[in-house]
């Protein structure tokens, strides 16, 4: 069972020769002088700044690959952080006009219309990756090959072996790699971990997550629709793994498929040792409470919007966690909370770590393994999936 959590001794992945879609490279001449001033001996090096009560540090220079609404939220989140610690220095957009408009709005000095050119940019230390899910793995390889640290939106990869290969490469090159499960970096999660460690809940034995939105039939019938398991299960699974901090023993699934054979309802149960469990309910047919409950022998915690909880109901009181305020609104609720993940990435990079303790490489591998198994268990011809129960790790 624990082989999955520890075995990363696989050969390096060879990046596919297939080129990503790109257009001619273009910079913005009028913005070239707006790069933050740096004292350097070589192109691309930046000044190290001494911070109080911390190791010498530098401004982390971010590249955006590519421009989209997730990237917009990422940039908005960085505006809450000190500019001497974080700066967006490059961006990539498939369409030249889109890239120029984004760069002008956020004062980004380096603009590209190909991923390869962004990867070669000497003014970039780390890259935020958020294209279509199927492109995540290839882009991560590209950036690692050019010695860029990587923060990638989930899923990191579409298959377990791909995660193994990426992790092997990042460790071999001494580069930071993190899947963007930014919930783990939030103050509310830190608070809950502290209360659980103090046994305020007693022995935690039950985790319940409900996540659902009524989606139009046209969307769920689209060939691009991946299903509720692929789209939403990760947010629930990461919470269960975070609470129990171990590999589940069994997985049980039930659900409903649409005419195309894609799941629109999923009920997932993860069984852990000592009769502990996590029950996850996902639906694209109806709106659910989008809340999570963590039950222990002494007390329970109820989380609103559990992927980014700002309010916890615990010990007969409400505990509120206010997120930083910004001039611009994020496209998705509470995604300004990514600022904590962005700062976590910087701390890890400055300390020479290749992974974050808050969401490590083993968990990325385990999560894609579980989602693959659940998806396979749901893939039956019947519209109503029969209840299935299998060992979590085979």
Verbal overview:
- This protein is an alpha/beta fold.
- The chain folds into two domains: 3-28 and 47-182, Rossmann fold (3-Layer(aba) Sandwich), CATH 3.40.50.720; 187-320 and 360-391, Dihydrodipicolinate Reductase, domain 2, CATH 3.30.360.10.
- The protein contains eleven helices and 17 strands.
- The chain has helices at residues 3-6, 69-78, 96-106, 115-120, 136-145, 160-173, 187-197, 217-220, 228-244, 338-350, 361-378; strands at 48-49, 57-58, 60-65, 86-92, 110-112, 126-129, 149-152, 177-179, 204-212, 250-257, 263-272, 276-283, 291-296, 300-304, 311-314, 317-320, 384-391.
- It has a nine-stranded mixed sheet, with helices on one face. It has a six-stranded parallel sheet with strand order 5-4-3-6-7-8, with helices on both faces. The chain has a two-stranded antiparallel ribbon with strand order 1-2.
- Helix 6 (160-173) packs antiparallel against helix 11.
- The termini are close together.
- Mean pLDDT is 85; it is low at 1-55.
């Amino acid at each position: 069972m624990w082989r999955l959590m520890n075995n990363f001794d696989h050969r390096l992945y060879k990046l596919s020769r297939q080129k990503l879609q790109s257009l001619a490279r273009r910079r913005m001449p009028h913005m070239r002088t707006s790069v933050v001033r740096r004292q350097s001996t070589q192109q691309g090096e930046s000044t190290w700044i001494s911070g109080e009560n911390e190791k010498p540090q530098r401004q982390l220079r971010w590249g955006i690959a590519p421009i989209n609404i997730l990237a917009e939220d990422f940039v908005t989140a960085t505006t809450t952080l000190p500019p001497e610690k974080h700066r967006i220095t490059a961006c990539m957009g498939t369409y030249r006009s889109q890239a120029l408009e984004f760069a002008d709005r956020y004062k980004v000095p380096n603009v590209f219309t190909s991923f390869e050119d962004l990867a070669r940019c000497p003014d970039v230390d780390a890259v935020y990756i958020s294209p279509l899910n199927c492109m995540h793995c290839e882009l991560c390889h590209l950036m690692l090959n050019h010695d860029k640290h990587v923060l990638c939106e989930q899923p990191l990869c579409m298959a377990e072996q791909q995660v193994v290969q990426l992790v092997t490469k990042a460790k071999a090159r001494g580069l930071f790699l993190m899947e963007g499960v930014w919930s783990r970096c939030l103050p509310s999660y830190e608070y809950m971990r502290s209360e659980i460690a103090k046994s305020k809940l007693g022995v935690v034995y039950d985790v319940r997550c409900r996540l659902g939105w009524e989606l139009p039939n046209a969307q769920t019938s689209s060939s691009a629709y991946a299903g509720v398991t692929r789209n939403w299960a990760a947010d629930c699974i990461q919470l269960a793994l975070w609470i129990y901090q171990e590999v589940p023993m069994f997985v049980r699934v039930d659900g409903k498929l649409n005419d195309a054979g894609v799941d629109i309802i999923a009920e997932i149960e993860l069984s852990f040792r000592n009769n502990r469990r996590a029950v996850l309910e996902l639906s694209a047919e109806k709106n659910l409470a989008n809340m999570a409950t963590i039950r222990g022998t002494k007390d329970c915690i109820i989380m609103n919007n559990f992927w980014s909880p700002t309010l916890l109901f615990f010990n007969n009181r409400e505990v509120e966690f206010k997120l930083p305020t910004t001039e611009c609104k994020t496209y998705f609720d509470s995604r300004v909370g990514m600022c904590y993940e962005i700062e976590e990435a910087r701390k890890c990079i400055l300390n020479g770590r290749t992974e974050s303790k808050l969401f490590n490489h083993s968990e990325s591998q385990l999560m894609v393994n579980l989602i693959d198994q659940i998806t396979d268990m749901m893939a039956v011809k019947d519209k109503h999936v029969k209840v299935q129960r299998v060992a979590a790790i085979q």
